Amino acid sequence: MKKYVAEFIGTAVLTGVGCGTAMTVGCDAASGSGYLITAIAFGLSIVAMAYSIGNISGCHINPAVTISLWMRGRMESSDVAGYIIAQILGAFAGSAINLAIFASSGVTDATGGLGANGLAGVNGSVVAGLIVEIVLTFIFILCILGVTDEKFSHGSFGGLVIGLALVFVHLMGIGLTGTSVNPARSIAPAVLAACTGNAAPLASLWVFIVAPIVGGALAAVVYGYLSSDN
Fold it and tell me: Are 213 and 84 in contact (CB under 8 A)?
């Protein structure tokens, strides 16, 4: 149970701080610095959680990561559902905290997207959105698989490297899809936004569920091939 609580907390922090930062600084072409600040916020959330809950749950805080690690045989099948449920619930907690903070402070768009992902940056193209999210998730999870491979030693810098990798993929993805690479982080803001009157993010939500899982699965397969002794 402690592993699931850790995943709940970690995903709440990632979603709350990452999406909350995006809401605070603004992420659009007119606020280019907002891209960088938001990317750093997501990356630092990973770093903070990796060094606080990593020893308890491994700090997946992302269903796509959990599935890819399971594919590589690095976690028990009996834990997969519990991890994913905890991650989704944690994302809802983080988004709910954002909603409470921004709505009570009178921010006009507090009941808007809540940092939800969308396809506006790719002119609404589902195909482009799928490609962006599959590729960026592949890169991110390939890094995770390499850094956490017990056959190689990366010392105590693993969490920092993974956090920087998340910053890296956000730098490209924010302007295109808002960067998901994490189904839990996408589900919660979209659903809560719909509950407050903005159902737009729900229309493309499936892209941000399917694409990260596909990208993570591809990373697991490719890393398995690259790291094999054959």
Answer: no
**Other C-beta atoms within 10 Å of 125: how many?**
13
Would you state the pLDDT for residue 149? 87
Residue 49 CA to residue 124 CA, distance in Å, equals 33
Question: Half-sphere exposure of residue 209, counting CA atoms within 13 Å on the CB side?
Answer: 13
**Residues 90, 84: Cα–Cα separation, whole Å:** 10
Two structure tokens written together for 123 = 């002119």
Class of residue 30 by CB neighbours under 10 A (exposed 0-12, middle 13-18, buried 19+): exposed
Q: What is the pTM of this model?
A: 0.93
Least confident of 67-71, 106-110, 133-137, 224-228: 106-110
Whether residue 4 contacts residue 82, with contact meaning beta carbons closer than 8 Å, is answered with: yes
Mean per-residue pLDDT of the chain: 91
> What is the 3-class SS of the chain, one letter each residue?
CHHHHHHHHHHHHHHHHHHHHHHHHCCCHHHHHHHHHHHHHHHHHHHHHHHHHHHHHCCCCCHHHHHHHHHCCCCCHHHHHHHHHHHHHHHHHHHHHHHHHHHHCCCCCCCCCCCCCCCHHHCCCHHHHHHHHHHHHHHHHHHHHHHCCCCCCCCCCHHHHHHHHHHHHHHHHHHHHCCCCCHHHHHHHHHHHHHCCCCHHHHCCCHHHHHHHHHHHHHHHHHHHHHCCC
Cα 103 vs. chain centroid, distance in angstroms? 24
**Token pair for 220:** 């697991």
